[in-house]
């Protein structure tokens, strides 16, 4: 009897083990918290595409057997130098194509926070993706961001902006002035969707978030459907109306100027003026502020240092965007910080490499551990930190079809 029960129990255990091994299961995908982490946990990165050295054996996403000229292409190039190899990844997009487009994407629906490039690419159904430019520590974009015909953050006037039109791209210096207008009355220039660090008048639209994030005394004008619905004093965050915007005055002088300018019931609108050099010819679909110029009118103009990253004279992983003489848009990611894989490049070296590719205008994007390129669902470059880094924004290639 004992042997019979022992055999039966053993059979049941064996059956359960076989069922457990043969049945697939899914775990919950971890969502990373806000913050610029250089080395996310292995668990958080486990859902990311697997890096590969050579994706060229597979057809490009969106490419069909009959295509003679794909709307975008990827190429990996290795240069052997006395100091070690330099590995480069080129993503080139035909801006005249009616099959694909390029646009900037942020990590969240609002302006703050970080996300993995692989997650942003997947959420955007991207055919390809490249890390974007620079951000403040809280994830707020470092300069102009315009998409879906909405100005999210304005141009600072400090760095060039990549303007994406329907059939071409333009890199230009840009400055922007924003003010409020009520009838014929015009306010002084205001801060727009900018985290408050100084006294002044700030305008916050719903893309900024749920509130103005102000933890100090200030005066607020709540604007709904183009009309001031309320004027309130607050000592903490005030909600931003979904059907309008919030005007927050910080400091005694700013509060006085806001009270003198508007009153409850008054109609008010946001006005903006953008100046570019060279002037834009045509309407842009999206815009994104980059880092320093590195090529201008076919000349290497890379500075020795950059306001975002400091020195550009050392070799490191780099990402940049450029426009070729034929109008194609070119992204380049250079691997670095690994003498056995790639030693990286300096800023001036990066500009020279892009000049060899026929680039006539180019600007720096974020580099280091942020440098990353995805083709399809594969990370094609060697990540310098060994895993993905949380970033605030990126560029995606999407299908227009």
Share of helix, binned: 10-25%
- Overall 3D shape: elongated
- Poorly predicted sequence stretches spanning 5 or more consecutive residues: 16-54
Largest sheet, spatial ordering of strands: 1-2-22-21-23-17-18
Tally of DSSP β-strands: 26
C-alpha end-to-end distance: 71 Å
Largest sheet geometry: 7 strands, antiparallel
DSSP summary: helix tally = 5
In angstroms, what is the radius of gyration? 25 Å
Kindly give the count of domains.
2
Describe the structure.
The chain has 401 residues and is mainly β. It folds into two domains: 45-174 and 276-399, no CATH class; 184-266, no CATH class. The protein is 13% helix and 37% strand. It contains five helices and 26 strands. It has helices at residues 2-22, 42-45, 117-123, 252-261, 347-356; strands spanning 72-81, 84-93, 100-106, 128-131, 145-147, 150-153, 156-165, 169-182, 185-186, 191-192, 200-204, 218-224, 227-234, 244-250, 269-277, 284-289, 293-296, 299-300, 305-306, 310-311, 318-324, 329-334, 359-364, 373-375, 378-379, 393-399. The protein has a seven-stranded antiparallel beta sheet, covered by helices on one side. Strands 5, 6, 7, 8, 9, 15 and 16 form a seven-stranded antiparallel beta sheet that branches. A hairpin with a 4-residue loop joins strand 21 (318-324) and strand 22 (329-334). The longest helix has 21 residues, at 2-22. It is elongated, with a radius of gyration of 25 Å. It starts with a helix and ends with a strand. The model is unreliable at 16-54 (pLDDT under 50).
């Amino acid at each position: 009897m004992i042997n019979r029960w022992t055999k039966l129990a053993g059979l049941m255990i064996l059956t359960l083990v076989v069922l457990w091994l043969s049945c697939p299961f899914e775990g919950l995908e971890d969502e990373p918290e806000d913050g610029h982490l250089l080395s996310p946990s292995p668990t958080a990165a486990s859902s990311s595409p697997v890096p590969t050295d050579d994706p060229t054996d597979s057809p490009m996403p969106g490419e069909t057997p009959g295509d003679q000229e794909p709307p975008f292409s990827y190429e990996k190039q290795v240069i052997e130098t006395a100091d070690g190899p330099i590995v480069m990844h080129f993503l080139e997009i035909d801006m005249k194509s009616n099959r694909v487009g390029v646009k900037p994407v942020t990590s969240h629906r609002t302006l703050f926070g970080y996300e993995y490039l692989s997650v942003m690419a997947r959420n955007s159904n991207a055919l390809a993706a490249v890390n974007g430019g620079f951000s403040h520590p809280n994830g707020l974009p470092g300069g102009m961001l315009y998409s879906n015909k909405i100005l999210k953050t304005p141009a600072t006037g400090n760095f060039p902006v990549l303007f994406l039109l329907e059939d071409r791209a333009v890199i230009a210096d840009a400055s922007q002035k924003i003010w409020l207008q009520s009838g014929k009355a015009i306010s002084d220039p205001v801060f727009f969707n900018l985290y408050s660090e100084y006294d002044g008048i700030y305008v916050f639209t719903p893309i900024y978030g749920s509130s103005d994030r102000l933890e100090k005394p200030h005066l607020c004008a709540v604007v709904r459907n183009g009309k001031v619905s309320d004027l309130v004093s607050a000592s903490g965050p005030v909600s931003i109306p979904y059907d309008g915007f919030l005007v927050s005055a910080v400091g005694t002088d700013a509060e006085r100027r806001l009270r003198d300018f508007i009153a409850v019931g008054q109609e008010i609108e946001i006005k903006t003026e953008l100046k570019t050099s060279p002037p834009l010819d045509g309407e842009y679909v999206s815009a994104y502020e980059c880092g320093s110029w590195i090529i201008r009118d076919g000349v290497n103009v890379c500075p020795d240092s950059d306001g975002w990253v400091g020195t550009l004279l050392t070799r490191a992983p780099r990402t940049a965007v450029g426009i070729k003489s034929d109008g194609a848009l070119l992204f380049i990611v250079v691997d670095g910080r690994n003498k056995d894989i790639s030693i990286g490049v300096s800023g001036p070296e990066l500009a020279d490499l892009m000049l060899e590719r026929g680039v006539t205008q180019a600007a720096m994007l974020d580099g280091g551990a942020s440098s990353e390129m995805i083709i399809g669902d594969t990370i094609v470059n060697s990540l310098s930190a060994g895993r993905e880094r949380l970033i605030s924004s990126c560029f995606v290639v999407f299908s227009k079809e």
